[in-house]
Amino acid sequence: MTRFVLPIAAAALLAGCATAPAPASPVEVTRFHNPAGLSVIEGGTVFIESAPRGGDSLAASPYKAAVARELSRLGYRETNRSEATLIAQVEVDRFAIGSDGERRGPVSVGVGGSTGSYGSGVGVGVGINLGGGRSRERVGTELSVMLRDAKSNQAVWEGRAQFSVGPEAAQAEPATNASIIAEALFRDFPGGNGETVRTKVN
């Protein structure tokens, strides 16, 4: 009986390793800004909306909520559109990455109960069906945010962040995913103009 303990334990350990989700990639962030324009609206009020080309999908709700939290941390107070000095336009794209590293179609995100201003509880679970070895499949996320002067409609800051993770990892869940990518996007705001940085995901 004793002779089989170690082989069985080893087999269980190897099975656990085989099914472990792929680790998250670093978040790659690129930002552009107009320093003069930003100084005028610094610490002002902000209205957060979906970007015109992005639609107002429920899937974007946790990302808009995450952007709102980051802007609040930076000293901007959220308000309605008519009173805002700053308009934040948010666009999010979630897509499947096959085991060959090629980008595939969009992932399907399950919708659960919504909470908060943007339904920050929306999105429970990620559906992905690419075939092949699931351990090598990934979910990619790209978040784009443009900050505009509400009076002139001039863009004063624009940022884009993207990263990928295994579909079964905790970081693939929409609310967690949104918090990770938004925090990286607004870290050291406004960031270097035209500079691309990479942030490790814990």
From TrEMBL:
Signal sequence region: 1-24
Residue span, DUF4136 domain: 52-191
Pfam families noted in UniProt: DUF4136
Keyword annotations: Signal
Source organism superkingdom: Bacteria
InterPro entries attached to this UniProt entry: DUF4136 (IPR025411)
Record protein name field: DUF4136 domain-containing protein
